Amino acid sequence: QESGCQVLASLAIDDGLEAQIGEEGGLPPLLAALTQHPKHKGVQEKGLLALQNLSSNPDNKKRIAESDGIAVVVAAMTGLPGRPVVQEKGCGALANLAKNEANRVKIAAGGGIAAVLAAMRGHWAHAGVQVQGCTALWNLGLVEANRVQIVEAGGLALVQEALQKHAGHERVQAMGKGAERVLQPLGVLGS
């Protein structure tokens, strides 16, 4: 299962293959592998990487959400909270899925915001988790109800802390500042 997930992750880097994997039924077996092996760190890490890569495609974003893929990502993140790679790739998959407007609401309703915030809190020193977490919050925060939920749960403060703790990391700065811009107006109003 782990090797199959790794192959899908590698193939999905190519835009044409990414679309083809979704079109030809590659998502259900991937989601099944993640569901059937919830504590296998290799399957979870490689499977979430594959979902992150596959969810760059607009059609795959819809397919993943329609196949309960959001719940699978959240379950992986909550099932292995101590694994930074699982958290990074889970946040990355949610960030990509949240580029679809309908998915933003589904992710929030499915516990995705809480999973992202927990990942960021649990892995301060891991720049990859902070980059993907900030990216996910940025995309999720484009919906007003999500912004409220994120700020009330301390998400703006987490983003600002990531910016401070990773002051020299270019991607944390870029994604963190984007998330901060989306969340800041509400954070100021809520103070």
Describe the structure.
The chain has helices at 2-11, 15-23, 27-36, 41-54, 58-66, 69-79, 84-97, 101-109, 112-122, 127-140, 144-152, 155-165, 170-190. The chain is an all-alpha fold and 191 residues long.
Outline:
Helix content is 80%, strand content 0%. The chain has helices at 2-11, 15-23, 27-36, 41-54, 58-66, 69-79, 84-97, 101-109, 112-122, 127-140, 144-152, 155-165, 170-190.
List keywords for this structure.
single chain; 191 residues; mainly alpha; 13 helices; 80% helix
The amount of beta strand, in percent, is under 5%
Integer-rounded radius of gyration? 16 Å
N-to-C SSE string, H for helix and E for strand? HHHHHHHHHHHHH
> Pairing-aware structural class of the strands and helices?
mainly alpha
Share of residues in helices:
over 70%
Low-confidence stretches: none
The whole-number mean of residue pLDDT values reads 96
Major pleated sheet:
none
The number of helical segments is: 13
Q: Gap between N and C termini, in Å? A: 48 Å
- The count of strands amounts to 0
**C-alpha geometry:** globular
